[in-house]
Write a structure and sequence with these properties.
alpha+beta, Rossmann fold, 5-stranded mixed β-sheet, 3-stranded antiparallel β-sheet, binds zinc ion
Length: 537
């Protein structure tokens, strides 16, 4: 931010500090440590390139506990962190953080994960592979498991696939059928070859031959120095996606659970790290031709493309719980939803082989949802139930916690009084009295801050209440006829806001749950597509 930058530069000028480097990380949330500029800043600190790090806002560097974590990390390298917005509260806040951090096993796990992530990135930067359970088809790991060797037998199959697509112009479906007919096992076992697997092969740069000159543009000069000038290499990209793990609190049957949530987002291309792998031996023009052909195919199928409003995890297979995948039959111009797991992994993966007509399924789902939205009372009821659950989960744990801290606080008060008594009775010297009192004061401060933190949670509930009111206001103002004209994209957005789940049952029934934040609420219904009846339970 320009004004933040001005503030920082002004501070540096005032304190007579030399600016070594500026970091920005525009567009990245302080919620995550996985940020390119932050990574470089941490490297700079680790290599002794700076004495002081100046930020305008502590939470812009990193939110919450992470800020304390970074501060400690910098401290270990003898570097001070100066947050211009919290210069005064820095000491007690920091002390409090250090006290409470130990209690967070969650945090411990985060630290390990973060260290591993940084370790992996630096490994990839050194031109080494970061091993995952399965190597790319046609390669095997070397003994150190940080490089590839070509698996000639399997690579011959990859070579053949590129010839079929790139030279002979076969479609991916035709290739899949051919391989299945020949009984060639698929990469993950089983006999089912499908388009996504083949597509991944065609687009993967491990199979694209790069000359030494091309590779030098991708890797660092240190890595390039280890390569053979006359050889060719494939490229394995590290860090194409950024993963974040978190825990969510859910209340089920009055008990709290903490499911682990993994979210993956595509990382921008400039963050990828290329690792050279041995020459796959497939002519470059075959690979490029194959890519061109599947690109063209995709454009063709785009013509018949529709927006699938129940995608994004909304429509799920009732048999296996997995998300339903889509299938568009071009000649008949009809779209279907089908179990994605069964389609990807084969018949053994899920028992439900039923196809659901997209149009009917979507209409039924929307009639149910717009029914709720057109009835503000019903919407309010669902939102209120969600809030009740949230309140219950907040009052369970924190209530006890608050009690513990309040008890500690009163114990402290008793101790303080006892000390004073001893002092007044002349049984305690003034120095020892003073030392004990300041100890107690410090501890008391920690307790009071803890109590404050618990209070913050209550304000979270207040926010939720405001959200509910906003949602209610928004949708009760949308006129009924406008609701009926919402575009599929907009409907999809509404579904996601409501946390809608539709389970597709083999008997054609759709089971609908709309959840806002927690468990299914009373509005769950079973829909029969033929009659579009809704039945409250
Ligand atoms: Zn299924």
């Amino acid at each position: 931010m320009p004004d933040q930058r001005d503030e920082q530069l002004a501070y540096c000028a005032l304190e007579n500090l030399e600016v070594v480097r500026e970091f920005e990380d525009a567009g990245y949330s302080g919620k995550f440590l996985e940020r390119p500029d932050l990574d470089e800043l941490r490297d700079l600190v680790a290599t002794g390139g700076a004495d002081l790090v100046v930020v305008s806002k502590r939470d812009r560097l990193a939110r919450g506990l992470y800020a304390g974590y970074l501060k400690n990390e910098f401290k270990r390298h003898g570097v001070e962190l100066m947050a211009l917005d919290s210069r005064t509260e820095d000491t007690p806040y920091g002390a409090l953080l250090e006290n409470t951090l130990d209690n967070f096993s969650e945090f411990e796990r985060f630290m390990i994960a973060d260290r591993m992530r940084r370790g992996k990135r630096s490994k990839a930067k050194q031109g080494k592979l970061v091993a995952c359970p399965q190597p790319d088809y046609g390669f095997r790991y070397d003994e150190a498991r940080d490089g590839y060797e070509v698996d000639e037998l399997r690579m011959a199959l990859i070579r053949r696939i590129f010839r079929m697509v790139g030279v002979e112009g076969m479609t991916l479906n035709a290739v899949a059928r051919r391989l299945e007919a020949e009984g060639i096992p698929a990469p993950r076992g089983g006999g089912t070859w499908n388009r996504p697997i083949l597509r991944k092969f065609v687009l993967s740069d491990v199979y694209l031959r790069h000359s030494y000159e091309e590779v030098t543009k991708i890797v660092t000069s240190e890595v390039a120095a280890t390569l053979d000038h006359s050889a060719h290499y494939g490229i394995s990209w590290y860090g194409k996606q950024r993963h974040t793990h978190s825990r969510e609190v859910r209340v089920k049957d009055g008990k709290k659970t903490y499911p682990r949530i993994k979210k993956s987002v595509d990382a921008p291309r400039e963050e990828w790290i290329g690792v050279p792998v041995p020459d796959p031996g497939i002519p470059q023009e075959w690979v490029l031709a194959a890519r061109k052909i599947i690109e063209k195919n995709e454009k063709v199928s785009n013509c018949g493309r529709r927006f699938w409003e129940l995608t994004g995890g909304i429509l799920r297979c009732a048999a296996c719980g997995g998300a339903m995948a889509t299938n568009f039959i071009k000649p008949r111009q009809i779209g279907y939803y089908r179990c994605g797991k069964r389609y990807r992994l084969g018949k053994h993966a899920c028992s439900q082989g039923k196809n659901f007509r997209a149009e009917e399924t979507e209409t039924t789902g929307w009639e149910f949802v717009s029914g709720i939205l057109k009835n503000p009372q019903r919407l309010r009821r669902g939102l209120d139930e969600m809030l009740d659950r949230e309140r219950a989960s907040a009052s369970q744990g924190p209530g006890e916690e608050e009690e513990v801290w309040l008890k500690k606080l009163s114990e402290h008060e008793v101790q303080e009084e006892r000390l004073l008594d001893l002092y007044l009775e002349g049984k305690l010297e003034v120095d020892r009295y003073g030392a004990r009192v300041s100890q107690l004061k410090q501890a008391r401060k920690t307790i009071e801050e803890e109590l404050g933190r618990i209070g913050d949670r209550a304000s979270h509930i207040e926010h939720l209440e405001q959200d509910r009111d906003a949602l209610l206001n928004h949708y009760s103002r949308i006129a009924t006829d406008r609701l009926d004209k919402l575009e599929p994209e907009e409907r999809n957005r509404v579904y996601k806001m409501m946390n809608l789940t539709v389970l597709a049952h083999a008997n054609d029934n759709l089971e609908v749950k709309w959840i806002l934040g927690g468990d299914p609420c009373r509005d769950n219904a079973t829909l029969l597509p033929d009659s579009c009846r809704t039945r409250g339970t």
